[in-house]
Amino acid sequence: MKKLFLVLLVAAYNSFAQELPTNADGKITFEEVIEVPNKNALDLYKKSLEWFAIKYNSANDVIQLKDEDLKKIIGKGTQSIPYYMRSPKISHLITVEAKENKVRITLTDLAYEDSSDSFQLENFPKGWFGKKKLFNTVKDKTLFIIADYKKYMLNDANSKW
Description:
By secondary structure, the protein is of the alpha+beta class. 35% of the residues lie in helices and 29% in strands. The protein has helices at 2-15, 41-55, 59-62, 131-154; strands at 29-35, 63-67, 72-80, 89-99, 102-113, 118-120. Strands 1, 2, 3, 4, 5 and 6 form a 6-stranded antiparallel β-sheet that branches. A hairpin with a 2-residue loop joins strand 4 (89-99) and strand 5 (102-113). The relative contact order is 0.19.
């Protein structure tokens, strides 16, 4: 009876593992629209390029597309995370779009990779434990990227030096 209870407890724990937000296609997607009053789209686009250069050590290695006409930047980045005895990196596709008085940041295509395994986070391996830990860590790191971008975009200190 104790074994049955333990099996049910583990199954319940795994079924309530933290899920990450998904888009209509079922892809894990983090997105935020940030209101930036009194800023035109071109200024927001250029400030976003500055943020890429600061956030990622080499913006040239990260940025895959810069379209000044569309006010859109697409990049591929990675973030290292702690995960048990492994040292994985989580790669992501980051898209920034600017319009008058607002920007949208979207992170998607999140994938796990370490020295022996790689997979899209939507395809977490069935035999693995630690889904909740991994997803919570990825969520925290990804929300930090968004918060950092938001803080940078709302900071007007650079304009008054």
